Fold:
Amino acid sequence: MIRIDCPWCGKRDEVEFTYRGDATVVRPEAGAPEEAFHDFVYKRANPRGWHVEWWYHGAGCRQFLKVVRHTMTHEVRSVVRATETPEVPAE
Amino acid sequence: MRYSGFRLFAEALRGNTGWKPAWRDPPPKRSYDVIIIGGGGHGLATAYYLAKEHGITNVAVLEKGPIGLGNTGRNTTIVRSNYLLPQNHFFYEKALSLWEGLEQDLNYNAMVSQRGVINLFHAEGARNAAVRRGNAMRLDGIDADLLDKEQIRAMCPLIDVDNARFPVLGGLMQRRGGTARHDAVAWGFARAADLRGVDIIQHCEVTGIDVEGGRVTGVQTSRGPIKANKVGLAVAGNTSRLAQMAGFDVPIESHVLQAFVSEGVKPLVDQVITFGAGHFYISQSDKGGLVFGGGLDGWNTYAQRGNLPVVDHVWSAGVAMMPSLSRLRGLRQWGGVMDMSFDGSPIIGKTPINGLYMTAGWCYGGFKATPGSGWCHAWTIANDAPHKLNEAHRLDRFRTGHLLDERGNGPYPWMQ
Ligand SMILES: Cc1cc2nc3c(=O)[nH]c(=O)nc-3n(C[C@H](O)[C@H](O)[C@H](O)COP(=O)(O)OP(=O)(O)OC[C@H]3O[C@@H](n4cnc5c(N)ncnc54)[C@H](O)[C@@H]3O)c2cc1C
Ligand SMILES: [Zn+2]
Structure:
């Protein structure tokens, strides 16, 4: 069980949240070339290591959060608000 | 050595002293015509069909651990071809037809059991979807039968067809579907490939892919560099990492799927049955254990272990469908790392690097594909072009918009 320390609600079990995927990809400008949209939708680093990801706290504050989590150990290193940029450990 | 009933009998009288290892354990050569990375079912099948169908025998399969201990040895072994999209059902039907002759072809008992696969539905909309899928299959000559509630009750007496919340309206059945023995599939392909000259090299991890001028030239491994004219990837949940070694990203994420086995009991479940109101599917192994599973844990991971929320979901869904399950103890549970694609369909074909090919994106349905994946991957490698069965499963479909989104889920790998 992953526990996520929501900046609004405190530490909660993962079952209160909905996963929304990689939070490092950024939507291109409307006029950007097709290639940029392909990468936005389909290109993922899929790292074995630290992953920055969206989680939606549906059974709590109903805010979107950015979570830094390790994809081998599942350790959650930091949780920040949607508008913030979390620090990602090198290893 | 040919396996047969007579051989078994003779060996029993000789104290089983005449059996030989089923495949050699050769040291890696310095170069091969083709290297296949990944000794799961898909990699071993690719090597076998390269040798058998295309006469390419200077081939090595490089596996970082022992063969068959990845997803091949971790899956719930359901075999079927009941897909809606023609590109998918023709491909899976090829695989199913290979399963039907596999044991004679490999001279190996893969315990292929065509016991039938039943997908239950519990609502009008779900029935319509099942009818549509069944008709799409029948139009293309693939077997599908629509069963009503009373037929389900008669065939599967332990299913709670009158469940107050999720009453069973009926089911779509593919009678030729069923199960096979996962380990035997890996071992059978390994033995048959080895007999045709393929080197199966275990404990040999690929750590780099050499590319010169846009063309693959070989690989770096934990047992030294090996040269090759062509390289095929069949590494399931590790596809992103291997592709990155060659310098490109793939539309794949790694996610864990769990499986469960109960204590052994007398025959209870004669078919493969899937629940339509939650993530749950079940069959019974020949040893008597009920083998079942559900959906993904739902977030990116490379760890081969499952987590409790899904354990809870799978057992609850199972008990809702088959209440007597609550009386059984769970014996074992484990996880495997799936190569989840962005449209839920596999990728078999060429890559941006010349001479580098891949079979991946198998999501949780790749076991049934094993012979078909190997067959198409081998064809693609031998001809440097896809066969018409895997033409649509190309990697660049994500650029051109020709997606194979079987369930219309959108580009979310964890929801496929
Ligand atoms: C719990 C579970 C249930 C499933 N149920 C079903 C089912 O009922 N029906 C169905 O059709 N499918 C099912 N699947 C999916 C199916 O198991 C897989 O799609 C299929 O077995 C994949 O085979 P593979 O050969 O591609 O992968 P694997 O068997 O995982 O083989 C890949 C191999 O590559 C090796 N490898 C990785 N990196 C390297 C490297 N750097 N160097 C060398 N070797 C490397 C790995 O060690 C591994 O042995 C299930 C999967 C799981 C986990
Ligand atoms: Zn919250």
Summary: The interface with chain B takes residues 1-2, 13-15, 19, 21-22, 34, 38, 41-46, 48, 51, 53, 69, 71-74 of chain A (CB under 8 Å). Residues B 37-43, 62-65, 69-72, 74-78, 205-206, 234-236, 238, 242, 257-259, 293, 336, 338, 362, 364-368 surround flavin-adenine dinucleotide (ligand 1) (CB under 6 Å).
